[in-house]
Every structure is written in C-alpha cells, then in structure tokens.
Specification:
The chain is built from 10 helices and 10 strands. By secondary structure, the protein is of the alpha+beta class. It has 2 domains: 153 residues, 2-Layer Sandwich (Ribosomal Protein S5, domain 2); 121 residues, Alpha-Beta Plaits (2-Layer Sandwich). Strands 1, 2, 3, 4, 5 and 6 form a 6-stranded mixed sheet that branches. The protein has a 4-stranded antiparallel sheet with strand order 8-9-7-10, with helices on both faces. The longest helix is centred in the middle third of the chain and has 16 residues. The two termini are 25 Å apart. It binds cytidine-5'-monophosphate (C5P). The site of cytidine-5'-monophosphate (C5P) has 11 residues, from β2 and α5.
Length: 287
C-alpha cells in the first residue's frame, strides 16, 4: 500500500498567447507547488477502482486518477489493477490543479506500485494526454510552463519569502469557455515577463511592477463575477504585497511577505474564512 500527498499549484502570472492549430493555446506562466494536499491511497487490486470522499455521483471512469491508471495500463500492457482512494481537500474547478495533481500523483505512484520500467519522458507523454497541467505535477517543483502546458523549465528558486493566502469563493469557472472568451488568434502575440528578474530582485512587488504581472483570465472573470475583483482589492487592503487569480479561476491569492507583521495575514485569514470556508494559508514547496 502507498499513501501519497497530492499537492495543488498556483500560477503567479498567466499569459495566454496565440491559439494553436490543435485548438489549444500557448501559455506562459510560473507554476508553484503549494502545501495544500489531497491524500491518495494506492493498493494492489484486480481491477482499477477509484473511490473519493466527494459524494458527487460522478462515474469513476471520469475521475482523473482512474484515467491516469487506465492510460498507464494501456501504455505498458500490464494486467495489474489498483484500488485508489482519494481524500479530497483541494477545491475543484478552482484554478489550483487539483484533478491534474491527482493524475500526476497516480502515474508516479503506479510506476512504483506496479514496478514498471518507464522513463520520465514516457510518463510525460502520457501525462499530457490526461490534461495540459498534468506534466507539471510529474516534476512538481517551481517551473516556468510554456507550450500548451508541456514545455517545462525548472525555475531555480532558492527561497520564496511569502506566505500565500488562498481565497476560493466557490465560483466554478469552466476552463474551455474562459479560453474561448479571450478570442485569441493564431497570430496573437504579447510580451511575457522574464521571471529570472524575480530571482534577481527577490521581491515580488518589484518584479510584478516592472512587468505588470497579470493573469489574462482576470478581466473575463471579473466582468462576470465582480466579487473576484473585490477580493483582489480586499487582499491588498489587508496588507498583501501582491494579489492575483490562479489559473482560469476562481481562486484568488495574496502574497504576504514573511518580513511583515504576521498579524496582517492572520486578520485577513479570519476575515475571508468567515465568509468563504475554502480559505487557506499555504506555502510554496521548493524542493
Ligand atoms: O488540457 P485540459 O483538459 O486541461 O484543457 C481543457 C480545455 O482548455 C481544452 O480543451 C482547451 O479548450 C483549453 N485549453 C487551451 N489551451 C491550453 C490548455 C487548455 O485552449 N494550453
């Protein structure tokens, strides 16, 4: 039996570039793994069976753990099965990559449980068929993500001197329509931030003001759900050094410098937690 923590991610900036011939979009983003986890349990079994703590009547075949196990079974030709139980904590449809994290964790866990000889390159090729965010979760370290989500450049960040306050107001944002609303063409181009400057400055305020670091989905979601922009402003008024939406939404995050008075973060946490139960203080995972 294997028990593994499957952690979420945040995006610090998300540029959606041109539309590709395969219908996807080229992206540019800094992905950071964070200390918000689902717990996954893997046991030998004859078939692939998945249970979760979420009582949502969704058939197991649609669960990304199931899809990942099935894809690995097909790729390797193994006849081994697995029983997977997922204790769900990461809010779903929230821009935190919860489902993708579970798929990535499943691939890595089954490599061990099934004792399969498969390279990282082969695992990445399976991961990208499961979802654009899944390849990131195989490395699960701060990464500049490009392409449709499959071009990974490890970001050699030694420290991240901020606590992260996540506020998820429970607004479900459908990814496909968010991309469509942007109306990107094949020729679209935009400036992208040079994240290496963050390594140089060490301060996200300085870095983000130089590049006006943005999430391109914010204007789309803010127009439909003005509360999100209010949360962004409120995070700043509570003392966050920087605030932005993660992924295609709707989780908003605030960075609180570890040099600041921790009371600021605590009072922001209390305020948001009373309104939105899915409010968390988390940290970046650097390893
Ligand atoms: O890959 P994933 O299943 O997460 O993508 C969901 C949808 O989001 C895709 O079908 C596509 O419409 C859109 N998408 C995109 N460009 C990306 C990632 C996702 O257009 N890089």
């Amino acid at each position: 039996m294997l028990e593994i923590r499957s952690n979420a991610k945040i995006n610090l900036g998300l540029k959606v570039l041109n539309k590709r011939k395969d219908g996807y979009h080229n992206l540019h983003s800094l992905f950071l793994p964070i200390t918000l986890f689902d717990r996954l349990e893997f046991r030998h079994n004859d078939e692939i069976t998945v249970t979760t703590t979420i009582d949502d009547f969704v058939p197991q075949e649609l669960n990304l753990c199931y899809k990942a196990a099935k894809a690995l079974q097909r790729f390797t030709g193994t006849n081994q099965g697995v029983y997977i139980h997922c204790e769900k904590v990461i809010p779903m449809g929230a821009g935190l990559g919860g489902g993708s994290a579970n798929a990535g964790t499943t691939l890595l866990a089954l490599k061990t449980l099934w004792n399969i000889d498969i390279s990282m390159k082969e695992l990445l090729s399976i991961a990208v068929t499961l979802g654009s965010d899944v390849p990131f979760f195989l490395h699960n370290t701060p990464t500049i993500v490009g392409g449709k989500g499959d071009e990974l450049t490890v970001f050699p960040m030694k420290e991240f001197p901020y606590s992260i306050l996540l506020v998820n107001p429970g607004i479900h944002s459908p990814t496909v329509s968010a991309f469509k609303s942007l109306g990107r063409t094949e020729r679209f181009s935009a400036d992208i931030p040079d994240y290496n400057d963050f390594l140089h400055y060490g301060s996200f305020e300085l870095f983000s003001s130089k590049y006006s670091l943005e999430n391109d989905f914010e204007p789309i979601l803010f127009a439909e759900f003005p509360i999100l922009e209010e949360i962004k402003k409120k995070l700043r008024s509570f003392g966050a050094n920087f605030s932005i939406m993660s992924g295609s939404g709707s989780t908003m995050l605030g960075l609180f410098s570890n040099n600041n008075d921790s009371e600021l973060l605590q009072s922001a946490y209390q305020y948001f937690r009373d309104i939105y139960p899915s409010t968390y203080i988390v940290h970046c995972i650097l390893t």
